[in-house]
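Example record

One chain of 282 residues, shown exactly as stored in the release files.
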Amino acid sequence: MENQTNNGDQNTQQIGQNSINQPLSIGEKPKTNFALVATVVLFCFFIFGIGGYYLGRQSIQYSTKEEESKTSPTPVITGTESPINWKTYQNENVTFKFPSSWVEKPILIRGSGYTQEFEDPKNKFSFTFLSTGNYSQVTGKPYADIDEYVNMPYKVKTVVVGGQEGRQPLPRAGSENINSVMFFSKDSKTIYTLELKTGNTALDTSESDVNEGQRLFNQIIETFRFINNSNDSITVKLYYHDSKLDPNIDFCNANNYIEKEIPKTNTPIKDAINALIRSDLI
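Predicted structure tokens for this chain:
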């Protein structure tokens, strides 16, 4: 029994000693882990490389566009419609274009001239074309030149409208929203005024609207033309009885005539008779 016990203790002790003294075996990391890490690293390099290349291309394209914007001229904003497609205003003496959305109001006759207004349906702009006879109420004579007619206490600049030299008042405080120009007709018998107003007053008008009004005004001026009436008129002889040549009132035959230029129409006889009736030479 004792031997058995001792043997059991010895076995137990041996087993314990073996379990204690025997070094633990640590397994080696599988080689496949290094391969996986290397694969992940290579994949990351590949992704970052593509991203860097793409960002570099984008940066180059942006720089190129920026350089082009610096070197290329900035286009002039003229609105949504070209003046070529605008409506045309024309009378017997002048013609010009205006935005097709504007409405031509009825003409207002006044004294020796008239006023033609154009209405913007959006109530953003108002445009006026004025024609008046060249006559000074002060001197009772025609104005010698456009400067005598303008005679403004503020500064003006010289502009050319339809081949004629005109005067355009420079913007003043409180009137930055108003653009106007005044000039003579080619025969100096008529004074024309073009005026464009943006908004109601300069205080309630934005700077962008003022600039747009200035552009519109300049475009209208550029389309202004005088009509050459040489090809649109005819010369007729108006015969009448001149009492100075023959005081006999019973003599009805025409003994004199005058030459007069009338517009070319489809009713030249009627126009000639009306011209004879209106003539102040007989």
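Notes: The chain is about 35% helix and 25% strand.
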